[in-house]
């Protein structure tokens, strides 16, 4: 009987312990920053407390005026537009392309053409409805799939808008031989445990503007370091996550619990990790520690390999599912498969049937933010984002899966997916 978790952290117990021991002095953070900058091919990278913290620092350093507008895809992690709002800026939501879940370039062009004008004095793009300047596009790359980054950058350049890339789910993705996170003015990454470059939390900002990186570094250096007890919590969380998704505990404890709660209509894993948009999602401003950076370095050394395995796994699943043409598999080109999303109308029934056959899935944590009550003032209609929020199911795809498990997953999907 199979018992396949929805995700498995990519670090090993050895990685965690070796990050502490033997102690290697206090240069872990600068070493990690340099290695990451070199990996991406940018002039500078800096460790920040979290992905959203990175966006906050980039935007704060752009010298924007209150009420300036920031374009983002409607389907995104709520914490991203929340940073925009907290800085007194206005999010403008544009619907997504259902083929890659990222901003729809045609809709973006339409918005600029029909709803904006050029301010003849400043040359800046202005939203006709609000009279506010449009200064930034956040190009989010979800699920390991690149957005149409070259087209976005061309459009932005034409209209004197800066592009910030949200690479939280796209670390190591290449488009035409160039890494995502190097196309725009600046980019941010997250180092959360479920991502492909985990370092027990934290994030990175990358840019070719060294002045921006230095300003951010100066600001981050004023943040306190986590206390001993907080560091211990980070490590314990990582160990618990490893154990709970491991081959011993998952089939005998974690999965039976998930199934039992599932019968009550509850997703315990989601409830455990979910951040409630209404409660805030503020991340504490804490510097990254040396042991996190050392763990990050170890993961960086493995990143290309693990991304290759993700690609192979994604390719295998797509190939296996191809015989049922009605299954809308994700795009394979340039995809590193951070997750494998499918849209399913009877989502919870489908997830339940998969659980009964030994496969745990997730509905993820993206929202149609253009229709989220906390962004009511910026509400707009985004049918594709709305559908994605309602129907998305993430199928397990992480590197630790074997070809046998992947074939089993595809067989079950083919059996259980409605025609
Ligand atoms: C697409 C996306 N953007 C931004 C973030 C924010 O990262 P963090 O949780 O490190 O603030 C996440 C988090 O997972 C994300 O998935």
Report on this structure.
There is one protein chain. It is globular and about 70 Å long. The protein is an alpha/beta fold and 419 residues long. α1 packs antiparallel against α11 (290-321), α2 runs parallel beside α11 and α3 packs parallel to α4 (79-86). The protein is built from 14 helices and 15 strands. It binds pyridoxal-5'-phosphate (PLP). Pyridoxal-5'-phosphate (PLP) binds next to α3 and α4.
Q: Main traits of this protein?
A:
single chain; about 425 residues; 2 domains; 14 helices; globular; binds pyridoxal-5'-phosphate
| Total count of domains | 2
Gross morphology is globular
Classify the beta-strand content into a percent band: 5-15%
Biggest sheet architecture: 7 strands, mixed
Helix-strand topology string: HHEHEEHEHEEEHEEEEEHHHHHEHEHEH
Report the total helices: 14
Tally of strands: 15
Compact description:
The protein is α/β, with parallel strands linked by helices. The chain has two domains: about 15-220, Aspartate Aminotransferase, domain 2; about 235-280 and about 290-415, Aspartate Aminotransferase, domain 1, CATH 3.90.1150.
Write the layout of secondary structure elements.
Layout: H1 13-20, H2 28-40, E1 44-48, H3 51-60, E2 69-73, E3 75-76, H4 79-86, E4 90-94, H5 105-115, E5 116-118, E6 125-127, E7 134-140, H6 149-158, E8 162-166, E9 174-175, E10 178-179, E11 186-190, E12 203-207, H7 210-220, H8 228-244, H9 249-263, H10 268-273, H11 290-321, E13 340-343, H12 347-356, E14 367-368, H13 383-391, E15 392-395, H14 403-416
Parallel strand pairs: 2-4, 2-7, 7-8, 8-11
Antiparallel strand pairs: 1-12, 3-14, 5-6, 9-10, 11-12, 13-15
Helix pairs in contact: 1-11, 2-11, 3-4, 11-14
The chain binds pyridoxal-5'-phosphate.
